[in-house]
Write a structure and sequence with these properties.
The chain is of the alpha+beta class. The chain is built from two helices and five strands, in the order ααβββββ. Helix 1 packs antiparallel against helix 2.
Length: about 110
């Protein structure tokens, strides 16, 4: 029997209050098992945001898609990366990369980096 996380949470709460929690607690705990999937990042072109000395700041939009083992694909997250790079001569080194997500919620476990 497969049930949604919110349903499992309600059942677990009801079971605890009735004094017979074991079966529903196990069900609730197993709802959040890791779902094997493949991530695909689509990253847009860099846009220069600013420069302070030899530290350059860039933005790049991203879309992150997840495909499960059955071939179902969904958008997991969209937003932008804020990248700071230290530029010395012809070489640039990453100083920091920050994810700024437009997506307000993550619909499943965040088991891999965005």
């Amino acid at each position: 029997m497969k049930i949604e996380a919110s349903e499992a949470k309600n059942r677990a709460a009801a079971a605890i209050s009735s004094g017979s929690p074991s079966r529903f607690i196990k069900s609730y705990c197993n709802v959040n098992l890791y779902n094997p999937h493949y991530d695909r990042h689509v990253i847009g072109p860099l846009r220069i945001v600013g420069e302070k000395g030899n530290v350059w700041t860039f933005d790049a939009s991203y879309s992150l898609f997840q495909t499960d083992l059955e071939g179902n694909t969904r958008i997991f997250s969209v937003g932008r990366y804020r990248v700071e790079a230290l530029v010395e001569g012809e070489a640039a080194r990453l100083k920091s990369v920050t994810v700024i997500a437009d997506t307000g919620t993550v619909s499943s476990l965040l088991a891999t980096p965005i």
